[in-house]
Records
---
Amino acid sequence: LRRSGRIGTAASWLGTALSLKPLLQLDIDGRLVLDQRIRTVAKAHAAMIERVVALVGERPASIAVHHVDNHDDAASIGAALTSRLPQVESLVVTDMGPVLAVHVGSGAVGVIVNTQG
């Protein structure tokens, strides 16, 4: 995020020192914005899974888990979503596109949800 200009040097240093992991989301206008900061990777992944479960609810959905050089964590998140959301019609784990990958950096994992209804 620092290299892309999304956060300053001081914020980057502080985030590294405190092991803060940003949970990002696309807003209504399609901009990548900070949703919350979480202390560990495990807690960030758990928060992302909870957010997706709440968003999908009982509706049928298709989900894609994207990653930047982090297939193992992406597959783990996909497995957790599949077990928590049995109504999911399809789940794909794939590499993140280069435009977002440049902004979020190596190791990033993201979830895309398409719900019906």
---
Amino acid sequence: MMDLSFFLVTIVTVLVLGYFYVKRKYRYWEDRGVPFIKPKFPLGIIGEMGKTQHSSQVFGGAYKELKGKDVFGGIYFFFNPVVLATDLDFLQNILVKDFQYFYDRGVYCNERDDPLSGQLFALSGQRWKTIRTKLSPTFTSGKMKTMHSIIISVANEFQKCLEPIAEKREEIEIKDIFARFTTDVIGNCAFGIECNSIKEPDTEFRRIGKLIFQFTQMEFLRIFFLTLFPGLGKALRLKINKPEVTDFCMKLLRETTEYREKHGIKRNDFLDLLMQIKNTGKIEGDDTDLGKMTFDELAAQIFIFFAAGYETSSSTMTLAFYELAQHQDIKDRAREEVNRVLAKYNGEYTYEACMELKYIDQIIQETLRKYPIVDSLIRVCGQDYAVPGTTHIIEKGTTVMIPIMGFHRDPDIYPDPEKFDPDRFTDDNIKARHPLAWIPFGEGPRICIGMRFGMMQTRIGLAHVLSKYRVRTCSRTPIPLVLDPGSPVISSKGGMWMQLEKV
């Protein structure tokens, strides 16, 4: 009886202490005079994310609720207080002016047990700076120009393979088609492998690509947990990447690099550049000593280039055509530009020709404004930070959430934000806005290093489709768009069904 009583007293004590701990944690923003959204026990603001709401809707809704009350508001992930940016000047301080306080993305990284997690997006501190320095020379405009011919070769094949689909005028799921195009582009440029996803949709490359971005709600919560408690995750030797994905990428890269080195094979692709750094610490034609790279470091950078490059660009192309199909005038203007530029360059998609597709770029920019594929950014405060113009202190270790969708659909920044209007991105209109009003690739020292490549392959993909085909809405086109809550990027629930026909 004594043992039972002691057990019950212990349980009650733990529950009471837990109650007061949670209550104290949930008073964090209130005690500091920061406007906040009342948390729901035990997950805070993220309870419905991945289940009934997409992350862009969760954080975009929080932005609307907190905007104008202060330069930032307070939300909670589990029991942890999180800063939610609601002011463009504050945002500029975080990403650019006071970057030294917020250099860490707070993405879980465990290079010991999960080598592919050691990629540039996840690294922090000196490790990030070292790898960024090594990679920067591989993403110059000159290096992009050398990869241009690879993309054009894939795009020409893609254009041909669309012809029988257009002749049948069937209702098709275009996201999968565009993903096969970008998979082949990235497979060629990153792994040096001809994936043939365009012709064979069930290739191993395509299956692995899909697997990278398949998440259950529990996996979403697990990622947030590892983000908030990385030390515990590393102590438990937890991994963020699926074992099947890791095994596939590591095996393929090891075989490919060993084969190239054995036979002296060189290609103008990303893998070739990283192999040069791995073996010599330099890139041919440049005497700068970057320092050598390990195989695991090479593999991690190739992996993120593949994962981010194929998904973001295919999603952008899909959503661009979703809007073009509903706006005939914009579609006609875009096609006219493509035909005019091609005529100037004798029908060839030269690098210079593609760089002249200014209106196509505006369409891409407006697509990413309305549908920022990666809808939010995270930064972690590295040391106590006095917020300029306020009495607030952001404490060391606090997570800062940047709701890109909130800013991009703010009517005070973009009037009539639900309207699709590429003319928002003329040179004059861009100059008239705050410099951080458009941030689909981030900004500052940690801006997406692959932005040029992503824009290039998306531009080429759109131009090749527009010049030969019309994309139309059909009975299964999701109007209005319903976001898939289980997708880590902005994506249509149930796919994007449309109709393709020859011009």
---
Amino acid sequence: MSNSTEPPDREYIVPLCVLNAFLALSAVVLNSVTIHAIRKTSSASLPKNLRVLLLNLAFSDLSVGLVVQPIYIIHLTFPFESQHGDNLQMNTLALVTGLVFVCASVLGVLALIVDRFLAVYLHLRYQEIVTPTRVVSILILSWVISTTFPLFWIVQEYRYFLWIFLNVFLATCLTTIALLQCKIYSIVRCHKFQIHAQQVQGSKHIEDETRATFERKKSSVRSALYIYLLLLVCYLPKIFTTFATMKSKEILAKILHQYTITFVFANSCLNPLIYCWKLRHIRRTIRMILRNIFVERHSGTDSCGN
């Protein structure tokens, strides 16, 4: 039986490793450029709270490509390199590191959505209530939670409890974000009606001020929505296949399990594309960074030629 199953394992693991290597490299490059661009973007264009939340999310995505996926690739190839086939320690290491940074990414998206909800709900009171210090404190707490609970996986007795907790945790986060998005949509519609009413009444000063505040928040709210939709696309296949193939021992179930994990990791290299697409200030900064790199390289080549 073992001889008949090893060739299929090798056949699907080789392209899986290549795919993970490509996604890991993309995540490292894209998130590194994004972090540099967010830091270079002026505070007038990017509010401090939003800057901290995006940096946190980009750092967790960078860590997935820099730490989690290389360990996962080693975990995939370890059974073929090990003489005894003992993959337990590498499996535990890959799982724990993956859970830490994946939980951090999910909580980072949740914190971003909550912040955007408070921005449109509190409106003028937002800066007074949601201070940068409180945002940083919440993010530190999210990293403590993300680091603490996966460590229980090392203890054999807690694994079943942790598996249930993680599924409940993920379902709760996704449901909470969905409800907040619905509430944000409702508030944004109310703001549009208020602006329209002010236009009818002819109060130009209030209209211009309200519209300027609304337009500043609209792009970040849309970005948060697209980040959440991307999270759903990448995470839902893993949730469905986990329940569908929970007790299956077939090779197809194993292949689906591994590929849906890779799909979860793909979320880390796709998030920076959302920032560039929907946040024009970050897109402009990245364009400026790339232009400076190519101009310096071109000028350096010309000077060497001369």
